[in-house]
Write a structure and sequence with these properties.
about 350 residues; mainly alpha
Length: about 350
């Protein structure tokens, strides 16, 4: 990706992280701006970029980037009708890109001869379209139609909806760098893993809307086991390239995300939510966004530049220190906020702007 686009994404990801701490300084809720700028703007643009398979992002990806920022700002300002209109236009853009690469009906999902990587890629685009359309419907329903009412069916719940497409495109990259001649049973596991992840998250979302505690515990545990099996397959059969080490780190973050998610569900339903629940929830959010999702996006953005000139092991450990420990602590110990922001920006700048084509320690 050209340096100017990397710079724009760097600014957007840094801004999203900073907005995550702005409530400590300004008495406003910046959560929507924080999440949408990261998952929708940065994540959606990254998905469209990798779909286009060109060095310079296409016009549709650039329009998506600008319009998604507008959507995030409108949702933050609670200007709901213009936000809903922006969401529909964004969905049309993504669907047109999806149909250029795949087809309207996702027949690839049911074809065992198609690669698991391509299935996850198509699912990522389709999920982004559906998340945008559903967010538009929820906005219009809450502010005007009022046809349905669920306590959990709100725009804020769609934080999860915009995170899932990024997860799916990262899964596509993971299955895409498996060795060529892998055993047939591993190939079949890939197809099973695809359906387990996609169906599992959809069912999980429905359980959240229905507020079903047993259902949430069951499906979150099921997804954890699925991710663990994917990790074992990738660790064994992933090609030994620099990207693999960062993606292994990403899956560790995803496992931490799953564990903290299960703990949060258990704590939330035991009546002891106040402190423990808020701590676990913050850990869960940081591990998901700035551990798992961020790593997947970084690998995609710099794919053509690998191997990049940095010490892979030190970079990964630094990332873990910032996101596993420092950033969640900073939400409860304000004196750590500026060090957390500075450390995150340093890590991001090192990864985004390190020179390429120079092999270093892995």
């Amino acid at each position: 990706m050209p340096a100017i686009f990397r710079l724009l994404l760097f600014i957007m990801m840094a801004a999203a992280f900073i907005f995550g701490f702005m409530d400590q300084y300004v008495n406003m809720n910046f959560e929507r701006l924080h999440i949408f700028l990261f998952n929708l703007t940065s994540g959606g643009f990254t998905i469209l970029y990798v779909t286009g398979k060109r060095q310079v992002p296409g016009l549709k990806a650039c329009v998506f980037f600008g319009l998604s920022i507008l959507y995030a700002v409108l949702a933050f300002l609670e200007m709901y009708i213009p936000a809903a209109a922006a969401a529909v236009i964004l969905a049309v853009i993504v669907e047109s890109v999806r149909q250029e690469k795949f087809s309207f009906f996702p027949a690839i999902f049911f074809n065992t001869k198609q690669s698991t990587s391509e299935k996850f890629h198509d699912a990522s685009l389709l999920c982004l379209v559906l998340a945008l359309l559903l967010s538009a419907f929820v906005i219009v329903n809450d502010s005007w139609l009022r046809l349905f009412h669920f306590d959990k069916l709100t725009l804020d719940v769609f934080f999860l909806g915009f995170s899932f497409p990024v997860s799916l495109i990262t899964m596509s990259i993971i299955f895409g760098i498996l060795e060529k001649n892998i055993p047939v049973n591993v190939v079949m596991f890939g197809h099973l893993a695809f359906w387990s992840v996609c169906a599992g998250v959809i069912v999980f979302f429905l359980f959240i809307i229905a507020e079903s505690f047993p259902g949430e515990v069951f499906i979150s545990t099921f997804l954890f086991v699925t991710v663990l099996l994917i990790f074992l397959v990738f660790f064994r059969y992933g090609r030994r390239i620099q990207q693999k080490y960062f993606l292994v780190s990403a899956i560790y973050f995803l496992l931490f995300t799953a564990i903290t998610g299960i703990l949060y569900i258990l704590i939330k339903n035991t009546g002891s939510y106040e402190l423990q629940g808020r701590i676990i929830l913050r850990m869960h959010a940081f591990y998901s966004l700035y551990g798992w999702n961020l790593t997947g996006m970084m690998v995609i953005i710099r794919w053509e530049d690998f191997p990049i000139a940095l010490n892979t092991r030190k970079a990964i450990f630094f990332h873990w220190g910032v996101i596993l420990i420092l950033a969640p602590l900073a939400k409860f110990v304000p004196v750590l906020t500026l060090p957390a922001i500075a450390s995150y920006i340093i890590f991001l700048s090192i990864f985004f702007f390190s020179k390429n084509k120079i092999r270093t320690s892995s």
